[in-house]
Amino acid sequence: MKLALQLILVAACAAVVFADKIVLKDGRTFEGEILEDAPDHVKIKTAKSALTFTREQIESVERGVSPLQERVKRMEALDGENAAAYLDLAVWMVDAPKEIQDEKTLRRACNIAAFLDPSCAAKAQLLLGNWLLAAGKRPDAAECYARVLKADEGNAEAKKQLGTLNAEIVETSKKSLVLLRAAVQPVRELHYGEAIPLLRKVTKVYFADKCKQYVKISIEDLADDLQKRVPCVTCKGSATRACAVCKGTGLTECVNCKGTGVRLDHPPNPTFAQEICTHCYHTGKLLCTGCDAERYLTVAFSGEVNGKNKVDIKIVAGVEKVALSEICSLSTWKSRKGDFKVTMITAGALVKGGTFTCKDCKGIKFDPPATEVNTFGITDYVNAIDALLSGKEKIEGVVIPETAYDAADIADKKFKWKGGKWEE
After folding, report:
1. Does the pTM of the predicted model rise above 0.70?
2. Burial class (CB within 10 angstroms; exposed 0-12, middle 13-18, buried 19+) of 150
3. pLDDT of amino acid 97
């Protein structure tokens, strides 16, 4: 409730700071947002209502600077050396309207300030940590509080917040370890098919990154390796599955011409333009939109178009008309250049469509590797997880880092804002 009230007050203050202003000849002043600025009147929306004044009543009209314009102005003034200016930008952003609070910019400003001047680090990281905490990004906030303590080991607020957040992180880590063990244990028991979907779900959890230390490959690579050893239930190891609409052909029969390619109501002895089915373009088959099928059509003309009397064009399901209409008229069936008649349209082989990459196996074919699964490493990994779950080994929360700034956020060393982007 307290935080919500603070946000409301901040928004209200921001509205006042950046308000447009109308000063009347009788001395009255109105602040808000100008809605209309016409030759004979000005309409302004204040906190209470919308008011309209004639030009005869108005002494002056002052346009406020929008928060976005103010942010750009502040960012363009940064010189890459003055740490206080970056910290001031961060403080201003936190107090600005919500749409101005860009996390990437705020992170960069705070970390540049901490990098340029260690004396600014504690304040910058505490500001960023509190903002992230309010935004619900608790693990990220914990890392900021740890950097505060790197800069100022006696900071009481950071100690309290980090202690609370680390307790949460440890409990979350324990739950993650249970899921991780449940995913790895089937590998130990050689139940690869059971393990694969479980492994794919725990690639980002706590201690998952240690798989490479024990098994010599990452969790992701382990799941992919096992997939090669076990035929996928969905695709039988082929890595693809047929489209349910076209049954894997990529084509469906044209119902308008019943697969003939010719209009059912064409006159006797028709011209090509009179007989062509305008749905399948003389092919009798439509590209399947269910699998985004593609193919080439060969269009033959009565004369040479760009030196050729035949043109190959790529056709994509659902937008066939777009490609065809670029080379010929779909009403007169004549070429766009040279005014030659279309004499024939024939379909080439399917380029794409009919099948999808199997999502269940990520498109990995059944092709067992010659090497064996590192079961000894898997056993060591499970034992390490058990040691953490039993308390024999300590689950670390966020620890005090080596620097009071996040090196990853400023790794590019781009500290100046020029032309709408960060530059060195």
Report:
1. no
2. buried
3. 85
